[in-house]
Amino acid sequence: MTVETSNITKLFGKQKALDSVSILVKKGELVGFLGPNGAGKSTLMKIVNGYLPADAGEVFVNGQKVTTQNLEVRRNIGYLPENNPLYTDLYVRESLELTAGFYHLPNKKKRVGEMIELTGLGDEQHKKVGALSKGYRQRVGLAQALIHNPSVLILDEPTTGLDPNQLEEIRNLIREISREKTVILSSHIMQEVEAVCNRVIIINKGKIVANGSIAEIKSGNIAQQQVVVAEFNKKPAADKLGQLGGIKSLREEGNLWIIEADGTQDVRPLVFDFAVENGLTLLTLQQKQQNLENVFHQLTQNQI
User: Fold this and answer.
1) pLDDT in the model for residue 146
2) pTM (2 decimals)?
3) φ, ψ (nearest 5 deg) of residue 116
4) Are residues 30 and 62 in the same domain?
5) Looking at the structure, do residues 54 and 192 belong to the same domain, yes or no?
6) Which of 91, 220, 246, 285 is the most core-located residue (most Cβ within 10 A)?
């Protein structure tokens, strides 16, 4: 199933939470939705789910328009909200059977058993939800989101508050689920998205500022910045090197020169020509892949 939003805009009073947001998530993709707190991630997810109406724009799941009234298309969506709503006084199995009843599943006990096995809740199924650890509560939330076998799964901050072991367990579970479903995962943690997703959408102040594979995002092309590492056989004239077109800054680290450019052009040919013109031999000349966190900061800081 594909998920598509077209020019989604949402206002809360005079504040524009989303500003003409358009994205396309194809069948079978595991896409990370990344942004700082307050960027509009949760708002968009609620609109995609049909829980919140947009002020402008449309959402389509597999070509069908999503609205708050269109229950048929919403049956194809599974949703784990940021604040996982659970009935803490119910036992795990009892809670999942209740959820299965909401969807009028024909053989709810069998389906609950399948979800308990899939999410690793077997040893906890006879405990009350309120007695579970944060990690197991997230598993219950995932089981609830999956119990009606949706084609699209939307996870809003699914690993918030988990310890390192719980993090890895939930990540592995999400990877397993994504083999058969279209998954959108929201987070403000770069390592989270990089660990499980194959494509990243970055939102800031209600606008999409980047959309591409992790390799494309980290290349610096999207953030319009290039970092080049150069090594010469002897020390160059730093003032002349720094005057090359597009170079914003350079620094010396041992025998290496770290050159930061604005990304408007590839500066490597300029550095090569500089070496030839100044009688230097280039021992190293390579583009440095940026850290996802650095690119994130470039795209989300000081944006108007």
Assistant:
1) 93
2) 0.78
3) -65, -40
4) yes
5) yes
6) 220
